[in-house]
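S., here's the first fold you wanted:
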Amino acid sequence: MLDAGRTPQRIAGLTLFFDHADAQRRYVLAETPRLVANPDPRLSLVLFRGEQSGGLLQLESTLAPTAAQLAAVERALTDSGRTPTLARPDWRSGVVRVAGWLQAQELAPKMLVAGAPSLVGDPVSVIAARLDAAGAALADAALKGNALPTVVIFELETLGLSGPLGVTAEADLHAIHDRLTAEGALTTPYGRARIAMTWESAARENLIRVRVLDETGEVESQRAEAMRRIGEDLLARMFSPFPPPERPRQLDDGTVAPLELSFRLTVRREELATSSRWDFRERRAVTIRHYASASLIDLLGDRDPADHITFADLGEIQREVVIRAEPELTRLGLAALEVDLRHSGAASVHRTVVLTDAMPELRLRTEAGDGPLQYRVRARFDPALTRAPDREADWQDAEGGLIAVSARRLFPPRMFTVIAGRVELDWLDHVAVRVEAPDELPRTLLLSADAPSADAFLPAAGGRAVTVTAEWRGRRDEPSITDAPREVAEDLLVLDSPFAESIDVLVVPLPLSGVVTTVVELRTQHDSFVHSKTESWDAPDRAPRRIGLRRLAGSAREFSYRVQFIREDGAIDEKPWASSDRSTLVIGAQGAAEVRTAEVVLLGGGPAGRGSIAVELVLEAGEHRTRDVLEGARDSATLALVMPEGAPAPVLIAREFLMSGEVRETRWTNPEALVVLPLVPVATT
């Protein structure tokens, strides 16, 4: 999933977000919209002459990277490592606005039109807007370069995984609003940098109070991340984006500088709550808003605006109406869309057309004298995907000659995402998450170490709560448990395991005279949950073993153990149960003892991969020692040395027997818990 906690890369005019789990995956976000050309750019302005002044603006734009930009990104990332996987964010919602500035006594923002883009792959926006006289004049002047920029603004939302954090904050919203209103600079448009300074100033003056709960050495970065989120939330609550109030500057190469959106304070003080609280704990899903904008004249580039501006005399003529659906019906769980057409004020339907992915566009002719058209859309759901009944939207007025039907906007689906949060997936085989919603077929999502997140597409669930039941399936000899069903209203669920952090115990059996078999039973218990494991050693094997014990959340990090010794004469010496919270158990020790462990890892894939016959490992302290031999592909071993208290510091010795007959020896005094034996090239003659 998109990682909102890491600073994205910027390469070749693109923003690249990291993935929270896959180091080679990048999510590509374009910064500048472009016109859709098929083959000519789809931008036209029809200016009306006659009694009804105004115009019709038709525009098809996309927020997509160019092939040259993607090639530059692949070259840049490939130079630094493996070839990356470039993906697009899963856009959840979005809006496209066309806005500009009217020149009056003072600059006044003018919103010409707003619409919903297609969110399949690269967002595409199809706009057909009837403009009033002021809007038509503004668009005409902006296309000719005779006015302040009229801008196409994409505002898209996706989800990202942010954190980990341990921060709480509280803000006095009324005091912050008073501050923003009192400062003269904030009554006119200004940039994001100025807004960010305002939040920091509010924090210094205790209008925003931030408290770091989990001081893990990253206090400042956690506080900065919390302030960034708070600033984005306050920005979304109090401000609205607008194009800049001045023309973009001309660069040396003749191109126009990129646009930077301005923001205006648009919420009244009495509309705000008195205060607001934020609580950032661990990783959580956050909404990421991506803004991208370009002026109309920049979208045209070197093309002559006159080729895209025409005039029309309003009269009694026949007109052609194009009805177009975004080609994503199958993905939305729809078999088809039915579009009813009628003339405004008529009681009966004039015509009904059916749109599918195979036929997403139809053209028909109608008499303009019959008055403007109205349309309504009916969704026919795919019965193989959902049990939901068909849905119908209200009548809407058709502006111009294009009726753009967005099934995603009219009948929004729901993408429910489940992410494994605090989960030990090394011993769990998988987590089966059953998702149930009204009128929807049940879905089962599988989470595992290879796939820690999964999505359930619910075509007709809407905003209703879903019921989630998680079954935690352990691997062989590991416990399983099923959570009670619970209702979830959000679109994303970070699922934490009912199991707390496992207890990892290193069991070291000492050789004892007359004992042929040593048996160790270990168990944890909390309420009705019991997890037990049994390990046995037959002489002469006394190799240490790591044993993982599972426990439920809320239980203590304590376990019970019992030891049995089977002697040569068949007698069984069974010790009573004992409790412990130690990470190492020494079985058979007499008196106080100290245990030192060293895990040795060979680079190269074991002795065979290093051109060696074997590697002998010895961990010793005085007269006490333990030994192991690595052969073939075996590339790691754990040595555990039991020695009396006060013994000298242990020494780790690695003797590597090479194919040439040479023996290479390496020593470490008082070794670390993890020791890596590097791959040393063998000299050749």
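And the second, which I think is the more interesting of the pair:
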Amino acid sequence: MNDLSVPLNLPRTDASSDRTLHELQALLDNAGAGIVFIRAREVVRCNARFAQLFGYGDAADLIGQRSESFSLGRAAYRDLGRAAFPVIAAGRPYVTEREMRRRDGRPFWARLTGSLINPRFPDEGAVWVIDDLEAQKAAEKRLDAALWEKQTLFDHAMVGIVYLVDRRMTRCNSFFERMLGYEPGELANVSSRTWYSTDAEWHDIALRSGPVLMRGESFSGELALYRKDGSRLDCDVRSRALDPSAPTNGSLWIAMDVTERKRAQSELERLVDERTRQLRDTVATLHLEMEERRVDRDRIHWLAHYDPLTGLPNRTLLAERSREAIAAAQQDGSPLAVVFLDLDHFKHVNDSLGHRVGDALLVAISERLRDVVREKDTVCRLGGDEFILLLPGATAHGAERVACKLLDASRQPYQIDRHELTMAPSMGIAVFPQDGQDFDTLTQSADVAMYRAKQGGRNTYRFFTPEMQAQSARALLLENALRRALERDQFSLHYQPQVCIATGQLHGVEALLRWQHPELGAISPSEFIPLAEDSGQILTIGDWVLRTALAQVRAWQDAGHVVPSVAVNLSAVQFRRPGMPERIAELLAQCGLSADVLELELTEGVALDDPQLAGSTMAQLHALGVRIAIDDFGTGYSSLSVLKRFPISKLKIDQSFVRDLGDDPSDRALISAIVRMAQALGIATTAEGVETQQQLDYLREQGCTQAQGYHCGYPMPAEAFVAWLVARAQAPALPPH
């Protein structure tokens, strides 16, 4: 591509358009700053000033140059990328000062300003503007030299004086060193964290002072600093930016030891308290009964309207405020938003650390929620780890801004006792009036959106949409229908053949669950199985599948049909159910079948979620003689520990790898690797989704054991499968190898 010194290859419409393009080109070429367009980490075009800054004679020499070559090494380049990408991906410009590298290797200071061409499509590239700061840095060094000449004055001051840049000390006077008990020079270039007791205190002062200094204002306050020996020092501090117009250049801090003054003040307050306590006791006696009654009334009112643990408004107070907010919104047409917030995996805290730590964490989270919202907003704890935020006057954009602030706040860890905990929220947002005319409807809509946020990966937010409502309504409809599906005989099993690739003989069948609803029609297992697992109905349904599949194999054997085995998918809920191996032994005994007839298909995640339980359960099944297969191998954890630690007899290669065997060399390589690994471990392999002879031939060449798919046979009801068996006996579907 051309650089900025060459006109863009645009269609010429008229003389005016050409003149505009030339004027724009001249403006870029004569800009005082370097300008470069980066795409895929390479220079697409740049202006002459950019080439000059980095020591190149012509901008055209830089086309195709890797952007990493302008940084001081790979580590600096990666550090810049990690810092810049979250900012520019959010649609904001990223500004920083960094040392860059000229063509001859010499470093120089520059200010970088970058932004994406189109935040919605980051692959379109970014534009960076580079300003040379060498002259500015030289001036700063001269200023530093002048300041150091005044060090004698600082050293004789009766207060501590400290200069900080990026929260790291660049210099201080000797009084500050003596005040904290350090030797001369011992504090040089150390982090200001050194004189704080905890990280929390260190971060707290940054949060309090940072915004003030960034505004160019002075900060003052009382801080607890700590000497080298760990003893506490109470100080009055004053701070200001060295250059109010450029706060990042550093700040000046002056600290005065007020420890003795505070101690004297405390003693005086103690004496005053002691003298006045008698008077208070006398007055308190006179008003005790009246006060107790008032306190009781206030306490009853408080308990009725606030959450006892966090002190946040409860459902009752939220209902009152929501009615007022909706009435106001209806009257003056002002906006209103509701945010439903649920903490991700909060149960893990209670289960692993106990409810005391969990309660303390909820209190800390509640305080942080209150800090994010406005005075007129309401933060309510519904119970457990669920919260609702009522935001009067907030548009959809305003609610989104609050949600982003909550996500940012959640990234800061909570210090609960000795535990440092991080807790992320999932949030749903509903807006009045389009998402609900009353508060109950708004809350329900926000709740639906929150669950969509959890399905989308958690630690995020989603706006409510009518499509969500429709999906939730269908999910509710299916869940209710699912409860009666068994008793109404709506379930059936289809059986898909599994064929030995080497001999072409039937190796077994997989039992596949089907649901035919009289009004809703055929419902996909991918839709109703998750509902069955969430509602707990999978236990009853799964037991029916096992019982029906084994009974069918018994019936086939009694009729003289040879069906060596049946494979049944076992959900994680079923697998973890106490007594599951005993139940399978009972079903096998009822049907009079040997255990080697049954093959249970599990996903990798089932084994890895609780390895100890998985190992014990698999060992019991293996002892019975039941075979265990890992389904959809390669699409989940793909952990070799599953194959090494557990008694696995088969790997089922997912059909996504088989589908593109003819076109995708990566899939061929993966299948070859899986088969070789399984052969080395003595484990059989079944390829799913085999639909062509070409796929089958490749699988045979690689040594895959079995095949399953439309090329071998479709999923069929039991009666159709018998007809397939009879036809196959007359003409084998697969030629032997």
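Why I say that: Confidence is low (pLDDT under 50) at residues 1-13, 733-737. The chain has 25 helices and 26 strands.

Talk tomorrow,
H.
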